[in-house]
Design a protein that fits this description.
binds nicotinamide-adenine-dinucleotide, 8 helices, Rossmann fold, seven-stranded parallel beta sheet
Length: 259
């Protein structure tokens, strides 16, 4: 067995949406560390440029591209610019996602808000898959990684838009894996448990953390690099026969908003 190429990403280009911070940033860093040319895309261009600079300063190769995943023109431009700069696309981390955790009571949430969660979490992912697939087919290598959530299988109060959109990601991943598989494009999803990023800080209180840890065998919450480890596995040739899977990275347990 030749193990030398299992994690080798040299010559491959990776786009990461929401790559400036949190799980997206850790994904950019780990993919660059294993040799990928990385496109840090984010609607916060200044932060994306900072992340790209940090990677380049460490000897990696990264550029920043301004992209709000809610805008179709921006998605098209992201793909076009990437091909112009780096010549190919082999890896896509569909990382942007969000919702109003704990604030999605059906008695309060506006229809437009609910739809926006699906636009951001489901539609933008599907659209980017559609845009990158021809390039991956041409490259003869494709790995798409969709960021789901433990919320896709948990039940919690006032989070039905986010949770159901993340559940849609799981099943979209399994189905698109069928469509793209014959072109050697793999598609997998990662469902992080509670991971210490800016997004989590908006809902985490010391009491909630304590309650989460009660149901978490590994007695800490996640760090962004815990999730990035799975991103690396799915992006790299080591997982070349792995597709249509959803893996939950959660310290072996379950973290919900319901104390
Ligand atoms: N942190 C957690 O506990 C957790 C748990 C489960 C799932 N997730 C998922 O992981 C992913 C990343 O979350 P995170 O915690 O790292 O978030 P984060 O808030 O730390 O970072 C999100 C990044 O995405 C960018 N962004 C937000 N909206 C955007 C848009 N419309 N277009 C382009 N960029 C945009 C932000 O500028 C930021 O750089 C999300 O899909 C989230 O649902 C996170």
């Amino acid at each position: 067995m030749d193990t030398s190429k299992f994690f080798d990403l040299k010559g491959k280009t990776a786009i990461i949406t929401g790559g400036a911070n949190g799980i997206g940033k850790a994904s950019c860093e780990i993919l660059a560390a294993y040799g990928a040319k990385v496109v840090v895309s984010d609607y916060n261009l200044e932060a994306a440029e900072k992340t790209a600079k940090e990677i380049n300063d460490k000897g990696g190769k990264a550029i920043a591209i301004d992209c709000n995943v809610l805008e179709d023109d921006a998605l098209v431009n992201l793909v076009d610019q990437t091909v112009k700069e780096f010549g190919s696309i082999e890896i896509l981390v569909n990382n942007v996602g969000g919702g109003g955790a704990g604030k999605e009571s059906p008695y309060d949430i506006e229809v437009a808000q609910f739809k926006k969660v699906f636009d951001m979490n489901v539609f933008s992912m599907w659209r980017l898959c559609q845009l990158v697939a021809p390039h991956m087919k041409k490259a003869g290598y494709g790995s798409i990684i969709n960021m789901s959530s433990m919320a896709s299988i948990n039940k919690s109060p006032a989070i039905s838009a986010y949770a159901s959109s993340k559940a849609a990601i799981n099943h979209m991943t399994r189905n698109l894996a069928y469509d793209f598989g014959p072109d050697n494009i793999r598609m997998n999803a990662i469902g992080p448990g509670a991971t210490k990023t800016a997004a989590l800080k908006t809902v985490l209180t010391p009491d909630l953390e304590k309650a989460m840890l009660k149901h978490t065998p590994i007695k800490r919450l996640g760090e962004a690099e815990d999730i990035a480890g799975a991103v690396l596995y799915f992006a790299a040739p080591i997982s070349s026969w792995t597709s249509g899977q959803v893996i939950f990275i959660n310290g072996g347990g379950e973290q919900t908003l319901d104390m």
